[in-house]
């Protein structure tokens, strides 16, 4: 399985900031050390083309990120301190998802050791999400006529409000978000299918709800490409999550989604989305489950 990764995925950040910036580097090293990936499987993206970003984001917002012209209010809403490194990592990560999309179409499955920044809107960033990598990738591939229909399976504990808003009027993109009902964002634009879970939802009801939802979605929508946003923040020890998924439950979740898509022979893109375990290493190890399960399922 090929994945996108660059050392530039790690940008300078304020010491003690809640966002686990080092998880990208730790995850990359962890997957190599455990032979889940080989060096030759890791493809370094270039910076995304400006023209591709404009398929989703406004010129005013792009200027704010690329040239450091965000207002203080915009930076607070984003939740990350602006720096040239943040602009670079954001451009690399978006291209990483575009590359992973193309690799999935070629190989059946691929991933990005970042991405899934589902809160980013056309004219602003929020919730630690700068650019909406999935939206840019989908519109880039559709412009090149590589795909027509895409499905986003978003299992981050926070609703994918950016994806929902961007594709609200697009019948060829199905947005599915299963999240904590009482969690951020508090204004949730409707996805194609939203399932809000109560605080404390554990493994059994979570997995039953997920399986039923996948049956419903694939019974009515046949995508050319699937994006899986495997946020690990539903875990019971997550700082923001408030659900009660165990690590074993997380592994079952990953297997459920990945095997479901594989059995239908639809190309699949794996993306990290969010996760805020007690330490950066624990966060990275939880993210690694998705890639470990994928290698087991795909052989």
UniProtKB/TrEMBL annotation:
Alphabetic keyword roster: Hydrolase
GO function terms (MF aspect): histone deacetylase activity; hydrolase activity
CDD domains in the record: HDAC_classIV (cd09993)
Domain Histone deacetylase: 17-287
SUPFAM superfamilies: Arginase/deacetylase
Protein's UniProt keywords contain Cell division: no
InterPro entries per record: HDAC_classIV, HDACs, His_deacetylse_dom, His_deacetylse_dom_sf, Ureohydrolase_dom_sf
GO BP terms in the entry: epigenetic regulation of gene expression
Similarity comment: family membership: Belongs to the histone deacetylase family.
PANTHER family: HISTONE DEACETYLASE 12, HISTONE DEACETYLASE HDAC1-RELATED
Protein's name according to its UniProt entry: Acetoin utilization deacetylase AcuC
